[in-house]
UniProtKB/TrEMBL annotation:
This is LacI family transcriptional regulator. Keywords: DNA-binding, Transcription, Transcription regulation. The keyword Cell division does not apply. The keyword Transcription applies. One of its GO terms (molecular function) is transcription cis-regulatory region binding. It comes from Pelolinea submarina.
Length: 335
């Protein structure tokens, strides 16, 4: 049998208002009273009346997760980390996919807020900082995952994308590859800019020319990786001796194109991806890549978000920014 707020108030000998403040960790009550109410809630198997809370202008024990592409195995792992963490704290997750489309992104914000989520985890910010400014104005907690805006500091958890790309190019250069094609996405995406910077810096350090013709931009999916590779080998002379793809998903498309062109990997062209998705060790040849620990990014971001949601009203939030160091995974595709 479950208890409601009236039961807790009678059991603890306090008002319903005090019980509400203790459960929401908001308002001016003593630490002793808060702990007493929370202990009673556990003992009596308290169950919140979520519809009533929402009607009263509050939020449910759900959070929204806006992802750029839920068909990408990288995001599946990130979602897994976020959901596991949310369950530990008694929260549910509503997922919204944008396909890196700014209009879908804005619709996602609107839909999730209409569902009175407690806060947002966001991996897609192609619409810029204005939606984030609006969230702040409405006092909606949010955390960015593997994205950030240089001109709008806020909470985020991300991998050191510049370092990861730098490690890959250093590895390829150490193998003797000098003409390295980079297949990547739009510069509106912060991780694209970061990885491109790492790519360029490593080339310069190894005495390689930075040729803008060796940077191909496309949508971040399998087909685009495939088509960009075919296009590059039609247009570039001399042809690249190695390819660094923005993601493992792109790299799989690249690999199909190279097979069709009769190019052996790595004998004719070396190949490296990024993300270390579950399939990377199992394709042929196994893919050299970078692990950016997507599960941990999702989990750490959720911890910060739940902490923000439950911040007492009388406390000021101190922004949190976490950078995880990536790990180079060398396999057969790079020689």
């Amino acid at each position: 049998m479950t208890a409601d707020m009236n039961d807790l108030a009678r059991y603890c000998g306090v008002s319903i208002t005090t019980v509400s403040r203790a459960l929401r960790n908001k308002g001016e009550i003593s630490k002793e009273t808060r702990e007493k109410v929370l202990a009673a809630a556990k003992e009596l198997n308290y169950m919140p009346n979520l519809p009533a809370r929402i009607l009263a202008g509050g939020h449910s024990n759900t959070v929204g997760l806006i992802v750029a592409d839920n068909s990408n195995p990288y995001y599946a792992e990130l979602i897994h980390g976020a959901e596991d963490c949310a369950k530990d704290y008694g929260y549910g997750v509503i997922l919204y996919n944008t396909n890196e489309d700014d209009q879908l992104e804005l619709k996602g914000h609107q839909m999730l807020l209409e569902n009175r989520v407690g806060g947002l985890l966001i991996t897609s910010i192609t619409s810029g900082k204005q939606p984030l400014i609006e969230l702040n104005k409405r006092k909606i907690p949010f955390v960015l995952l593997n994205r950030f805006l240089e001109d709008y500091p806020t909470d985020w958890v991300r991998s050191n994308n510049e370092l990861g790309a730098y490690q890959i190019i250093q590895h390829l250069c150490s193998k003797g590859y000098k003409r390295i094609l980079h297949i990547t996405g739009s510069e509106t995406i912060s991780s694209v800019r970061e990885r491109q910077t790492g790519y360029i810096n490593a080339l310069k350090e190894n005495g390689c020319d930075v040729d803008p013709n060796l940077i191909y931009r496309c949508d971040l999916n399998l087909e685009s990786g495939y088509k960009s590779t075919l296009k590059a080998f039609r247009e570039l002379d001399p042809a690249p001796t190695a390819i660094f793809a923005y993601s493992d998903l792109l790299a799989i498309g690249v690999l199909k194109a190279l097979h069709e062109l009769g190019k052996k990997v790595p004998a004719d062209v070396a190949l490296a991806g990024y993300d270390n998705i579950e399939y990377s060790p199992f394709i042929e040849p196994p893919l050299t890549t970078v692990d950016q620990f997507a599960y941990e990014i999702g989990s750490e971001g959720m911890k910060i978000l739940i902490e923000k949601i439950n911040l007492p009203e009388d406390e000021e939030w101190q922004p949190k920014q976490i950078i995880l160091d990536p790990e180079l995974c060398v396999r057969e595709s790079s020689g």
